[in-house]
Amino acid sequence: MQKQDETNKKKSNSNSNSTSTSTKIIIGGVVIGIAGFCAYKYFSSKNKTDSLYNLYQGFELKSSQEKYEILKKMGDILTKENDPKKLQQICESETMNKFYKILIENISSFNISLQEIIIDIFLIISKNAQNLNMFIEKQFVDELVQLISEEKMEETESRITEKTARIFGNIIKTTKEIKFANYIQEKGGEKKLMRAFRNGNLQTKSSCAYCLTWFAELLPDVIQKSATIEFMESLFESLKEKEPENLTYSLSLINDCIKQNNTNTMMIFKNGGIEKLMELLSNENIQVQCNTSMILSSFIENDPSFADIFCQKNRVIKIITENFFKRYNGQENNKR
């Protein structure tokens, strides 16, 4: 009996040791796997930074064609990176900062093809980097404002104008830096963007409205003073656009332009603005409805007599009331 107990005990110890060894092997495998994955991530990111550094070396001495190829490779590194954190690290790296300084110092001397690639690179950085301090410089603004085309544009000029407006908008949105908006104003950038809005295609209008909307948050007085009748008319004309995002920015910009500004308010009113705004109150997009209601509210703040006009137009009151109860009932249902 005692021998049987000893045999069972040995078997138990053997099984226990076997289980313990298996567990250790599994844990060891997991640890090695995690370490390997982290190493891969680190070296993958480091390799891309090193690749940027290699591209940066001697860039200024290269020919235009060589510069074009280098910038194209640089753009590929950024566009093909799918990991947002790694992309942010690359965008904020010391090498990218050095590269950026060379690009901004030389952008005006490059041909239009090189300029567009540089703008593409700046656009990627402005979308993905959280630290955009390197862009908060007067020289950067001065150089990019020069690239904004105001009159009828060729295809490449149109794309550069559109992307430049988007870059400015991204930087203002992320940093909320008044100094940056002031640099734009000092160079007459907001006026150029307004003229580009009037003369540009749909994509250009969208990007200019996006930029000017964020600009207006920081310098509302500047937007009101710079808004010409021609700009207001083209802005109002853009309300025919069906895309909710574009409509939202246009409406927000109209509201920024008419706040405490009776001239702009009356211009919209005389051009049949109330009827168009009534249509937009029925838009399916809630943000469009809200921005439209804000404009009507600004009308009344500028001139209380508009309250009587809206009351006479029963449809305005009816739609606003319906929208309110739709949202209220939606919130109540969500609570349940």
TrEMBL record:
InterPro entries linked: ARM-like, ARM-type_fold, Armadillo
Alphabetic keyword roster: Membrane, Transmembrane, Transmembrane helix
Keyword check for Cell membrane: no
Gene3D superfamilies: Leucine-rich Repeat Variant (1.25.10.10)
Transmembrane segments: 21-43
Keyword Transmembrane among record annotations: yes
Region (Disordered): 1-20
Protein name listed in UniProt: Importin subunit alpha-7
Organism for this UniProt entry: Anaeramoeba ignava
Taxonomy of the source species: Eukaryota, Metamonada, Anaeramoebidae, Anaeramoeba
